Amino acid sequence: MQRIVVLAGGIGGARFLRGLKSAVPDADITVIGNTGDDIHLFGLKVCPDLDTVMYTLGGGIHEEQGWGRAGETFAVKEELAAYGVGPEWFGLGDRDFATHIVRTQMLAAGYPLSAVTEALCARWQPGVRLLPMTDDRVETHVLVDLEGARKAVHFQEYWVRLRAEVPAHAIVPVGAEEAKPAPGVLEALAAADVILFPPSNPVVSVGSILSVPGIREAVAAADAPVVGLSPIVGGSPVRGMADKVLAAVGVESTAAAVARHYGSDLLDGWLVDTVDAQAVAEVEAAGIRCRAVPLMMTDTDATAKMAAEALALAGEVRA
Ligand code: GDP
Ligand code: CA
């Protein structure tokens, strides 16, 4: 059985995984999920990217929105607001609240996040092994200019409240230096037949995962070919504001620049969209095998074709 390891953020990672499962239903898939977006709200531990993967693969996602639960209601949020308790800018629905309550209760009882995630997945049956990148607390902060001062804000405040509209100067995964990969992460990378970077955010999703000491090294040292898919198509992110965080780390918003940012020490192969076919030569000049194929995840079939192309490229670079 083919062992595939995917380093995933939220929406881009989750949608890609759905296509991957459809392309290779019998593969053994391990997902290393980003937890740098995690935030404590109302005393609860919220893990947006892990939940997006779990809900998407488990059939509970709000399809159009891409995050949160389908058929959601917001009574708890409204009641909290009536007490003047916020933040009002982070949308937690009633169904979603239950997930965070269960998670927080288990963490308080002493279970590590990896065990809690496994317990939550027992309900959702995502059909992949979902591992947090670490059981330790890592929180991405963004250095911004706000109200005349330079200050660090939580990633969610930058992304959701400020909509990435204020200048960002640095992205800091606070706590990463002391964090250890969660149990199973390094073992999965070492045993992988293929490692994939889905079209997730290269800075605050895949970048945060790689910032946990040992993970970048394990990807670089793995026997398996490493193939990524560009989240940047035609010079801008397909969705969201990845261009803003790329700028903050000095990387241009092009498919080729993102490949060079990961570099040939990590990547063996890179897929760009057909509209970026002119980037292939530049990526190959950087020592990374590159192909231009359609990269729009419009539906599961289109996404499955992308996954199949990534696996084909992995086979080619291995040969
Ligand atoms: P987040 O944690 O929810 O922000 O999700 P990820 O980090 O997993 O993915 C976000 C990235 O997915 C964005 O930078 C988007 O450009 C990218 N993305 C979303 N939809 C598509 C798509 O259909 N095709 C490609 N190539 N990228 C996409
Ligand atoms: Ca995210």
UniProtKB/TrEMBL annotation:
- Kindly list the positions annotated as binding 7,8-didemethyl-8-hydroxy-5-deazariboflavin: D51
Q: Name one GO molecular function term.
A: magnesium ion binding
Signal peptide per UniProt: none
Q: Name one GO biological process term.
A: F420-0 metabolic process
Q: What keywords is this UniProt entry annotated with?
A: Magnesium, Transferase
**EC annotation from Swiss-Prot or TrEMBL:** 2.7.8.28
Top-rank EC class of the record's enzyme: transferase
| Residues forming coiled coils | none
Q: Name one Pfam family in it.
A: CofD
Note the HAMAP family from the entry: CofD
UniProt function note = Catalyzes the transfer of the phosphoenolpyruvate moiety from enoylpyruvoyl-2-diphospho-5'-guanosine (EPPG) to 7,8-didemethyl-8-hydroxy-5-deazariboflavin (FO) with the formation of dehydro coenzyme F420-0 and GMP.
- Report the sequence similarity comment from the record: Belongs to the CofD family.
Protein's UniProt name: Phosphoenolpyruvate transferase
Gene name, Swiss-Prot/TrEMBL:
fbiA
